[in-house]
Design brief:
Order of helices and strands: HHEHHEEHEEEHE
Strand content: 15-25%
Largest sheet: 4 strands, mixed
Distance between the termini: 67 Å
CATH architecture of the largest domain: Ribosomal Protein L15, Chain: K, domain 2
Helix content: 25-40%
Number of strands: 7
Structural class: alpha/beta
Radius of gyration: 32 Å
Strand order of the largest sheet: 2-3-5-7
Shape: elongated
CATH topology of the largest domain: Ribosomal Protein L15, Chain: K, domain 2
CATH class of the largest domain: Alpha Beta
Number of helices: 6
Mean pLDDT: 88
Low-confidence stretches: none
Number of domains: 2
Length: 148
């Protein structure tokens, strides 16, 4: 059976300096030469050799760029469309023509249709991307997928 060991900080409660001597001794990061790899540029860059050895030549400087364009697929399931169809009709995102519900996913902020769920109505869905299974399910229910 293991015994419960008290944390060291509990022992130091009320001791003012927690066993660190005078208040000046453990103040700030100066007592350990700075934080992280501070000091690597002092005295003719002597510490750089250690950094190159540990991390390689590419440690310093900026590399490459980050594209500001948002590339990504925002996907939606068939079950989501089934559950929220009335809401989409009220918001005029979807329209009904001769028993077929026409939905443009781009207007809703989505660009891919996934196959989770089963369609109970006929849909004509305009989308950029669609999974094979989702396409099969929509077409077997009598609907169609239109690629943008």
């Amino acid at each position: 059976m293991t015994t419960h060991k008290r944390k060291k900080v509990v022992k130091y409660r009320g001791s003012h300096t927690h066993g660190g001597g005078a208040k000046k001794k453990r103040r700030g990061a100066g007592n350990r030469g700075g934080r992280g790899l501070a000091g690597s540029g002092k005295r003719a860059h002597h510490k750089k050799q250690l950094i190159f050895k540990l991390f390689g030549k590419d440690y310093f400087g900026k590399k490459g760029f980050h594209s500001l364009k948002k590339k990504g697929i925002k996907a939606v399931n068939i079950s989501f469309i089934e559950d929220n169809l009335e809401k989409f009709l009220l918001e005029k995102v979807a329209a009904e023509k001769n028993g077929v519900f026409e939905i443009i996913l781009e207007k809703m902020g989505y660009n891919k249709l996934l196959s989770s769920g089963n369609p109970t109505r006929k849909y004509k869905i305009h989308t950029k991307f669609v999974s094979k299974k989702a396409k099969e399910k929509i077409e077997s229910a009598g609907g169609e997928i239109v690629s943008i």
